[in-house]
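Input.
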Amino acid sequence: MLSLGARSATKTQILQSLGFNLTHVPEPAIHQAFQHLLQSLRAPSKDLDLRMGSVLFIKKELWLQTNFLDNIKRLYESKVFSTDFSSTSTAREQINSYVEKETEGKVVDLIQGLEPLTVMVLVNHIFFKAKWEKPFNPGYTRKSSPFLVGKRTTVKVPMMHQVEQFAFGVDSELNCSVLQMDYSGDIVAFFVLPGQGKMGQLEQALSARMLRKWSHLLQKRWIEVFIPKFSISASYDLETILPKMGIRDAFDKNADFSGITRRDFLQLSKATHKAVLDVSEEGTEAAVATATKLTVRSKDGPSHTVVRFNRSFLLLLVRRATEAVLFLGKVENPTKF
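Output.
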């Protein structure tokens, strides 16, 4: 969205750092693809609650280019709010309460502080809530199981447990096990457990191609699975991360956002990302309903593979139809919120 209002090197740095090759893909095609992706993700579904949005909070006196406003509304369905930034605490409260409401209270205090010179805040938010196609029975959740943090420390976590048929595979090239669990609807979760000491190697190799490879590699089989029940939250100050990716000019005196406003000089001062994810017996949010499945097959039933997610693992939530990754994270300590 920001690239729509950026010009010269500022624009190029944003798009190239996000992996777009402007000689192969013209800029309008990039925005149209995002527009299409957002529309497909917003398609209503009875099985899952997926809400996303973009909001621009702008200083009342800021004179915006009509073209920029039209484009962010048309392509990204962004809302625009006129905001009084003369009181940074009031503006911060307005932004945080809006995001909290849109994410059903999951993302709180997104903005920790605003500089007195702030004239514009751009916020993207996503809220995801779904139920497992094959839910866990809370009665089989072990209240206190060891989970290895680092090389030697263990913490106690509630460990969900079930024996079911899931798509599963071992990637011998990367030395990791991949379990696919489906949500009701079109979303799948990939739980990826690297071999001891192989997390760095796995992170380096992550790519869209790798995901496709896993999708083809996995086969349905009986699995006895142990997965921690957890709620995790992570916040990132992107003003330290984005320049390392190549988005530098946007944050300093070389910034060119003349596509947003011609009258004033704008530069980025803060970029924040916060994600919250709950994984429980029912799905991604704890629910009061009890699972109807009460059978754990006896050990002398069909032979099965045992997979224990009792140390650091990766988790990806993917929309099947578009192969869009909605969430990607590393669970290092499920007790930390």
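The CA atoms of residues 92 and 112 lie 8 Å apart.
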